[in-house]
Amino acid sequence: MDLSDVHLFLIITETNSLTQAARRLDISPMAVSRRLASLEQELGTRLLQRTTRSVSLTQEGTEFLPYARALIETEEGARALFSPDSKGASGLLRVTAPSGFGRRNILPLVPALLNDNPDLRIDVQLTEDIVDIVGRGIDVAIRVAPLRDSSLIARKLSDNPRIVCASPDYLRRFGVPQELHDLSSHHCLRLTNVLQWTFESQGQSTSMSVDGRFSSSNVEGVRELCIQGLGLAQLTLWDVKKEIAEGKLVEINLSDVQPQNLSVWALLPTNRHLPLRVSVFVEKLKASLLCTQMK
Question: For residue 287, what are the contacts with CB-CB under 8 A and spacing of at least 6?
Fold first, then answer.
């Protein structure tokens, strides 16, 4: 199998266009089409559906995609290993993370990563959606919520308990809740899709339905209204660590329940042939979280 044709296949899936792939590789669209056909003939299956305007993966193309990436990444890793001119991590690092966590903890790492690795490119996708990292070609996904069962590889980066907090002004006006049932008499700010707040009691998970006059689809909205004194919020530690340290928010400890223990996770498609760019990013993020945690 010609790895240059495999690389061409990956570029087509990134650009969704034979013409754009041709421009990136500085060859003619006819040459792209001919080389793609050669790869399909060698594999004995059609990888892409072509129209005059776009291309899309067939089912067989979708199944081949992770193998294609592994082939190219293995070749790149081998070349870098024995190259005297190697200058650290290289290639395109694709990362997805929740927007709030990503802005605070990932984007600040980007300048140093790029400076230390001149051949590295980074694409950070900040979204609250759960992304299909295999199908979308994502190298690593950061998760701050309970993990669903999957075939993905999970690496723990940091503890991240859910905590209840409020502004000092709100607590002066409405008092500090002491037990779980006290929450029902308070204004609760919640994430749109989170109808219950979850805690732990005697090693078991326990939840309570909450309601209030404001909800938001992202953490920033809830946190900002909490700072302004509009109610209580349950967010994860890394969502409000900075505000608690600055005294803008106060953590509330309830006597009959404990915070739910969560973690920050890095999800990887596989542990095999892990590209250097992924290892470098994951270790840098883990070290940054540990350093911040110790302050």
Answer: none
